[in-house]
Amino acid sequence: MSERLPVFQAQHISKSFGGVHALQDVHFEIVPGEVHALLGENGAGKSTLIKIMTGVYQPDAGEMALDGAAVRFGNTREAQNAGIAAIYQEPSLFPDLDITENIFVGRQLTAGGGRVAWRQMVQEARRLLAQLGVHLDPSTKARYLSVAEQQMVEIARALSINAKILIMDEPTSSLTLAEVAELFRIVRQLRDSGTAIIFISHRLEELFELADRVTILRDGRYVGTQPLKDVTTEKLIEMMVGRTLADLFPKQNV
Ligand code: ADP
Ligand code: MG
């Protein structure tokens, strides 16, 4: 994997909110066809890094590059146009719009004379859902979908913009076990087709099951990047909290 060139790189990223250093000199990179986990305790800076990658925030310092070329995102639209899509713990679909409308919201296809090309959009929605192996009728309104189904629609939307990088911030926290298995099937399918996936989860067993590498943040600082196959749960926890488990749980002399 490490022979592949990064599709995205961030270096020396810093971001403060008032006096709070959310990120200080943080590094991150991901290669195509990789699931890269982002790990850290609450407040470590994971969501802030993601929001910088998606143009929600602008960094105070640091550089980002896509396919080796420097980039700077003034807003979320610019990040999306560059091929970076994100799905969150709580999906953000429009409840009264149907699946097709949600996939194409803000960028409807048009036919001759500027008419909206509904039939074409429905066909495309159906094709994207089929590609993901998801059995949903594209005319279903979002309000009737489960959280897991809404995430599938957001992934279909990411596919439709040809996202090179798909970011998932705690996507499994409100899913059932069966839904998590279905999400993982789709994540692996996207990875195998070359998409770079950034996966945030507190559940270490999920990272070992799904991720190729992990980057650890602690108190807004970069701790390190490791292939999952080279680390133990114990080691990950040590990197997250900054102390060894022996320090945290000293052996009692009884
Ligand atoms: P994580 O996602 O790893 O839990 P965050 O990136 O959400 O961490 O937060 C990192 C730090 O930055 C925390 O101390 C948090 O309180 C602070 N922070 C994040 N966003 C804001 C904001 N918009 N305003 C003020 N402080 C923020
Ligand atoms: Mg967060």
Structural account:
This protein is of the alpha/beta class and 254 residues long. It contains nine helices and ten strands. The chain has helices at 46-53, 76-81, 99-104, 118-131, 147-160, 177-192, 204-210, 233-241, 245-248; strands at 8-17, 20-30, 35-39, 61-66, 69-71, 84-88, 165-169, 196-200, 213-218, 221-227. The chain has a six-stranded mixed beta sheet, sandwiched between helices. The protein has a four-stranded antiparallel beta sheet with strand order 2-1-4-5, with helices on one face. It starts with 7 loop residues before the first strand and ends in a 6-residue tail after the last helix. The structure holds adenosine-5'-diphosphate and magnesium ion. Adenosine-5'-diphosphate binds at residues 17, 20, 22, 40, 42-48.
Helicity, as a percent range: 25-40%
Apparent shape: globular
SS field, number of helical segments: 9
Runs in which pLDDT lies below 50 for 5 or more consecutive residues are none
**Quick one: biggest sheet?**
6 strands, mixed
Class from helix and strand fractions = alpha/beta
Please tell me how large the radius of gyration is: 20 Å
The mean pLDDT is 92
User: Which ligands, by name, code or SMILES, are bound?
Assistant: adenosine-5'-diphosphate, magnesium ion
| Strand order across the largest sheet | 6-7-8-3-9-10
Strand content: 15-25%
Distance between the termini: 48 Å
- The total strand number stands at 10
**SSE order:** EEEHEEHEHHHEHEHEEHH
